[in-house]
Amino acid sequence: MFSITKSALFAASAASLLACGDNGNKVSPDAHDHDHDAAVTVDAAGPLAVSIPFVARVKGTAFACDQVYAGVGSTAAEYKGQDFRFFVSDVALIPTGGGAPVPVTLTANSNQSADGIALIDFENGTGLCQMGTPSTYSTVVGTVPPGSYNGVTFTMGVPQAKNHLDPAGAAGPLNTTGIASGMSWSWRSGYKFAKIEGQIQVTGTKPVFNLHLGSTGCPGPAADQPASGPCTNPNRPTYTFSNFTLGTSKIVADVANVLADADVKTNMAGTAPGCMSFPGDADCNTVFPKLGLAFEANPAATQTLFKVE
Questions:
Q1: List of residues 6+ apart from 30 with CB closer than 8 A
Q2: Which of 11, 20, 36, 85 has the smallest set of CB atoms within 10 Å of its CB?
Q3: What is the distance between the alpha carbons of residues 299 and 176, in angstroms, rounded to a whole number?
């Protein structure tokens, strides 16, 4: 765990004496729930730098555009990587011993906004990955007040207040003419919180299984106008882990775990390829519960997308 050393406190106390002399956000925890401790000296006067690395995998192997992964889904299909991006927001650390999560102040850059949204991006614009850009981004960076932390929480999604702004005019990670290309449905519906795709390797025409997570049932007069109120299905899961150590832990996302009971070779007739979040899409029946979300008559289950290593 992170802590301020006695030497740092002694130095601060000595400085004070000299001055006097001069008249001076949980869906479900990861199954591997155990604590990791590491003593680290931090500056008591300044914020603590935070780096939260994410890793993308398919069936235990690192995601790469055009790589083929065997044994995916209920029919053990071959799945060829096509996209792997998702938004995170409301990132916070959990103090050692419990207490309210402490928000991470994100460092603004092309993939992160100072108001707390980051786009995690593992595609590089090569091969089948044609909707994104050559740049990738896998580590959330920012600061928190000095202290001792051994957990992390975050939401996969874009907050309601930002989800229905004009995507063409948005800045940073929400700019759909830049790094967020292909990450929105429409102004009214908002962003795709996750866009994870694979081409299924079968004889003949090769279908694509899309996992597109986003809000649905968003009211409004037209798709090219902002939503007029909250969406019926927000679909923003929050994940909390009590076994995260700054400096050594990473968060692993493996889409094969979520697709384990889905027949990725066969798409429901009359619907878009894969699970697109919209009501009536039976391809989401086994997928949403594994994200920690209910879908129609299918209750939420323990999430299997993320874990801490």
A1: 241, 243, 306, 307, 308
A2: 20
A3: 33
Domain count, the chain: 1
CA pair distance 139, 120, nearest whole angstrom: 7
Query: Is residue 1 a part of any domain in this protein?
Result: no
The tokens for 219 are 């009211």
Flag whether 231 is in a domain: yes
What pTM did the predictor assign? 0.85
Q: What are residue 286's phi and psi, to 5 degrees?
A: -100, -15
Alpha-carbon distance of 94 to 152, in angstroms, equals 6
Give me the amino acid identity at 107.
Answer: T
Q: Are 58 and 123 in contact (CB under 8 A)?
A: no
Q: Is 25 a member of any domain?
A: yes
119-167 pLDDT, tens digit each: 999 999 999 999 989 999 999 999 999 999 999 999 999 999 999 988 8
Enclosing domain of residue 45: 6-308
Look-up of token digits 């398919």: 58
For the segment 66-117, what is each residue's pLDDT rounded down to a tens digit?
A: 999 999 999 999 999 999 999 999 999 999 998 999 999 999 999 999 999 9
Answer for the pair 152, 86: CB distance below 8 angstroms, yes or no: no
**Cα–Cα distance between 235 and 36 in angstroms, integer?**
31
Q: What is the CA radius of gyration of the chain?
A: 21
